[in-house]
Structure formats: C-alpha cells, structure tokens
C-alpha cells in the first residue's frame, strides 16, 4: 500500500499545486535559519540546484533575492509554470529528480521537503546523483524523517507518502559520496519539527 502511495506523489502535487502554493504561503519562511547555515558554506552568488522546488516560494525566492542563481527542478508542470512566471530570469525544469542528469555542478544542492517523498531504495540512489551535481566544497541540505520507516500523511484530503532511512545510514551514504555532516538536528523545534541534514563535499 505504501509503495502505491509513493507512486502517486507526482500526480498529487500536479493536481493540488494551487492548494500547496496557498498552504506554503501561509507557513512563511520558517526555514530561514537553516538557509543561512546553508548559505554560509557557499561562495557569494554561488549557483544552487533546488530539487523539488515547488513554486519557488519562499525558499528559492529568498536565495534568488540574495543573488544566488537557482536552477529549480520539480515533477509538477503546474509548479514550474508558476516559477517561470514569477522568476523568469532563473532556470526551471520539469523533471523527476531520480533521473536528473544536468551535466553541471552547483555550489549548493537543496532537497527540502521533497527527497523524503521517495521510497527507501530511491533515496539511496539519490546520493551518487547529489555527488554528480556537486561542485568542489558544495553544500547539500535535505530533510528526512527522524527514524527508518514509512508514513502516510495527508494533504488536501488525500494520502501523502513519506519515507526515511535511519540516521546511521544517511551518515554512511553521505560519507561514501564524499560529504561530511556539518549539522544535523532531529525534529528541530525551531523549524516546524523538521529533521534536517546539512553536509558539505570534502
């Protein structure tokens, strides 16, 4: 059942794009302290790859406003249409992050509230992809669950799939891909209970 819900994620966000945009706007930029930690590892105006960028508001918008070029990737054409309308000077790509191959490298890679919609094996396969798109000393920041498992939440009245590996496996995958953990907080009370990983390529 969980695997079926995982397979419905792309369709759900496409159909419910406007609902997501409205709910995200209400939440505000509660991620700002983490974005500042992420930015502290980047060169000035370093380019950023945002995987699962949604409508670009508010996270990519914040980074763009601080002078970082952003390449945003999302599986929802409706979301990408909004990005292109509001930020035409940036690059927005409709794609599944699991098969991304841009043949470019970035100073920073974000997978915030997106990577955790992938199943366990798909998450494991993302780490070489992160590495392929990481410039020397690149920062990587993503959110996960607090422990190994799967969970079905709800969005706009429909099931919403999440999965997580355990912390030890994330550390191992990061290490094998050449990243060191800079900061990791489980269920950060100052960030809406998010479990956050910030790493840097070494």
Q: Give the helices and strands as they follow along the chain.
A: HHHHEHEHEEHEEEHEE
Number of domains: 1
- The strands making up the biggest β-sheet line up spatially as 3-2-1-4-5-9-8
The residue ranges in which pLDDT falls below 50 over 5 or more consecutive positions are none
Taking Cα atoms only, what radius of gyration do you get, to the nearest Å?
A: 16 Å
The name CATH uses for the topology is Rossmann fold
Helix residue percentage: 25-40%
Which structural class do you get from the secondary structure elements? Answer: alpha/beta
**CATH 2nd-level architecture:** 3-Layer(aba) Sandwich
CATH class: Alpha Beta
What is the number of beta strands?
Answer: 9
What's the rounded overall pLDDT mean? 92
CATH superfamily descriptor: Vaccinia Virus protein VP39
| Multimeric organization | single chain
Number of helices: 8
Q: Write down the overall geometry.
A: globular
Q: What is the strand content?
A: 25-35%
Largest sheet: 7 strands, mixed
């Amino acid at each position: 059942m969980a695997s079926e819900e995982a397979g419905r994620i792309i369709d759900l966000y496409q159909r419910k794009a406007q609902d997501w945009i409205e709910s995200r706007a209400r939440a505000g930029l509660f991620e700002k302290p983490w974005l500042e930690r992420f930015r502290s590892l980047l060169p000035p105006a370093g380019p950023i790859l945002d995987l699962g960028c949604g409508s670009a508001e508010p996270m990519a918008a914040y980074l763009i406003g601080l002078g970082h070029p952003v390449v945003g990737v999302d599986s929802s054409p409706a979301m990408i249409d909004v990005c292109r309308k509001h930020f035409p000077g940036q690059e927005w790509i409709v794609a599944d992050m699991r098969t991304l191959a841009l043949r470019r490298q970035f100073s920073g890679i974000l997978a915030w509230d997106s990577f955790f919609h992938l199943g366990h094996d798909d998450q494991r396969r993302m780490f070489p992809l992160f590495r392929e798109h990481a410039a020397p000393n690149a920062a990587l920041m993503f959110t996960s669950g607090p422990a190994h498992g799967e969970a079905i939440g709800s969005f706009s009245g429909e099931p919403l799939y999440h999965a997580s590996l355990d912390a030890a496996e994330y550390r191992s995958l990061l290490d094998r891909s050449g990243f060191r953990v800079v900061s990791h907080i489980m269920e950060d009370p100052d960030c809406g209970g998010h479990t956050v990983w910030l790493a840097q390529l070494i």
